[in-house]
């Protein structure tokens, strides 16, 4: 299966999702939309990853319009789609939902819970009913019209909409060094960087296993 990964910079790539995709015998193409323009659209599945850009910053990042157009195209064509963090926010916006600042940035692990629909979902249902989700975001999405909420937390954490398309606010794909690079340049850390690093050392291995299961479940649903 040919999988497209849309990225928004060198520190926001598919990471452990890439390991799963390639390791399970699929073909992965990465596409940095900032540098390469509107992405190709003929893929069996698409993943859109995070970034330090935000919905509403189209004057500074005009390529966001290309992303919204591509997302609407994939939804219309029923291309299986997974948006992560910024990718979930651009998906929600492309489908008419609001994306707004959180207030205080969410950085670290936060209690989250599957809804009844999330427990029955073919992708998010592989997660425990209750878990701590790794967030790194200052914006949040509202649910698009007709979307189903799958995971609740300090902000809506995941939804599914017709497409089939899924959006997830937390980061199931991230690696330790990648996260520490994000946190190092973040002025709104809720605790010292050393404490966040210790929390990652304690929780990240188990969290990444959840991420691998989630990625495989998406690939299975896409195929």
Structural overview:
The chain is an alpha/beta fold and 223 residues long. It has one domain: Class I glutamine amidotransferase (GATase) domain (Rossmann fold, 3-Layer(aba) Sandwich), CATH 3.40.50. It contains seven helices and nine strands, in the order βαβαβαβαβαββββαα. Strands 2-1-3-4-9-8-7-5-6 form a nine-stranded mixed sheet, with helices on both faces. Strand 1, helix 1 and strand 2 form a beta-alpha-beta unit. Helix 1 runs parallel beside helix 7, helix 3 packs across helix 4 and helix 6 packs across helix 7. It is globular, with a radius of gyration of 16 Å. It starts with a strand and ends with a helix. The mean pLDDT is 97.
* CATH top level label: Alpha Beta
Secondary-structure class: alpha/beta
Instruction: Provide mean pLDDT, rounded.
Output: 97
**Helix percent band:** 25-40%
Number of domains: 1
CATH fold title:
Rossmann fold
List low-pLDDT spans: none
Terminal-residue CA separation: 7 Å
Q: What is the number of beta strands?
A: 9
**Widest sheet, order of strands:** 2-1-3-4-9-8-7-5-6
CATH fourth-tier homologous superfamily = Class I glutamine amidotransferase (GATase) domain
Name given to the CATH architecture? 3-Layer(aba) Sandwich
Largest sheet: 9 strands, mixed
Rg estimate, integer Å: 16 Å
Number of helices: 7
User: What global shape is seen?
Assistant: globular
The percent range for strand residues is 25-35%
Summarize the structure.
This protein is 35% helix and 28% strand. With 223 residues, it is of the alpha/beta class. Strand 8 and strand 9 (165-168) form a beta hairpin.
